[in-house]
Amino acid sequence: MDLNLRRVLFCLISFFLLAIFPTRAQELAKKEGDFVVRDFRFKSGETLAELKLHYTTLGTPARDPQGRVANAVMILHATARAGNQFLVPEFAGVLFGPGQLLDINRNYVILPDAIGTGLSSKPSDGLHMHFPQYDYDDMVTAQYRLATEGLGVNHLRLLIGVSMGCMNSWVWGEAYPDFMDAIMPMACLPVEVGGANRIWRQMSMDAIRNDPQWNEGEYTAQPRAALVTMADLLLVLGGSPLQMQKKYPTGDAADKYLKSYIDGRLPKLDANDWLYQLNASRNYDPSPKLERIKAHVMFINAMDDCINPPQLGIAEREIRRVKNGRFVLLPISDQSVGHLSYVLAVLWKQYLDEVLKSSAR
Question: Angle 164-175/136-145 helices, nearest 10 degrees?
Fold first, then answer.
């Protein structure tokens, strides 16, 4: 067989295999690590001798002739989650595979665990309620230091944030306006947390503090009643009424799902960690500085998101203040899942394509 023909066949077969087994390809490119910041100073004035920031990366950084990293994509996770929440078929399988928008053969994807979550430093490591009272500004500062000092990344091609990460992404855009080309915030609002969003958070924090088992954070067993209340609130607000009705149309089916949800969710929660994560939003309010954002912004919410309901009109109002900003409201469909629609990349990948093209240099 002709040598050139063999090479072509080899490339075609390799591409075919990668397309069939994108998860295996991603596993081969995945690296995990910890970056430790010494004497990290929080906005509250508190310090931590060693702040551990866990991260996962996919792919390899590439630099342009000026030495700037040109292919870095940082993705910020939701509350009570971690960077690995994006390593699921609905997200990674749609975006990270060969020829896809964030193909890890061409992009360097960074998935950090925020302060207080995942394998990064958090109250449940041992300090409990003596852990510094961090906020979203601290989270973003730590993520910036992870990128620049820990990973040597001096530029982001794209920053994606979902839910809590969405709010973090607005802070990023204002704090480091020249650091990224594009931002894609999903499932949040760029204003102070008030109204029903603040109320459910306060209800969750009150449930923890008022549970006798909490013991000012020095519990020996998780305060179950508080965690059940918290998980219940998150399920109702974060889910899709349409999908729940379709999947669990009877009382018996709904009851069985609720039990399986609680049984599966509770072992993954820690009361102190959750309390800190919710309280971190206490002073979040990017609205006064939205004009500072220079990056191209593709802001996306879902019509069936009960945490950020579209009838408020806040997203449409605030995006007008962002120079290169656009807001998209995803319609309710057989695929949408409320607040968690951000996980289903098939619903919004066309808008990711648009912002990548509009922000290309």
Answer: 70
- The structure tokens 């430790």 sit at 36
Residue the block writes with tokens 């998980």: 231
- Calculate helix-pair angle for 251-265, 224-238, nearest 10 degrees: 120
Q: How many CB atoms lie within 10 A of CB 118?
A: 22
Largest Cα–Cα separation, the chain: 77
Pair of tokens at residue 184: 């894609």
Give the domain extent around 203: 195-278
Where is 251: in which H helix or E strand? Answer: helix 251-265
Token pair of 170, please? 């607005």
Least confident of 28-32, 135-139, 224-228: 28-32
- Distance separating alpha carbons of residues 308 and 190, to the nearest angstrom: 11
Last residue of a domain, one of 278, 308, 326: 278
Residue type, 227: L
> pTM of the entire structure?
0.91
- Domain with residue 297: its CATH number is 3.40.50.1820
Structure tokens at 131: 């852990």
Residue 17 lies in a domain: no
Reading the block at residue 106, the tokens are: 């061409």
Per-residue pLDDT at 21? 39
Number of structural domains in the chain: 2
Nearest to 186 by CA among 356, 106, 300: 300
Residues 127, 232, single domain; the answer is no
Interval 273-315: pLDDT, tens: 999 999 999 999 999 999 999 999 999 999 999 999 999 999 9
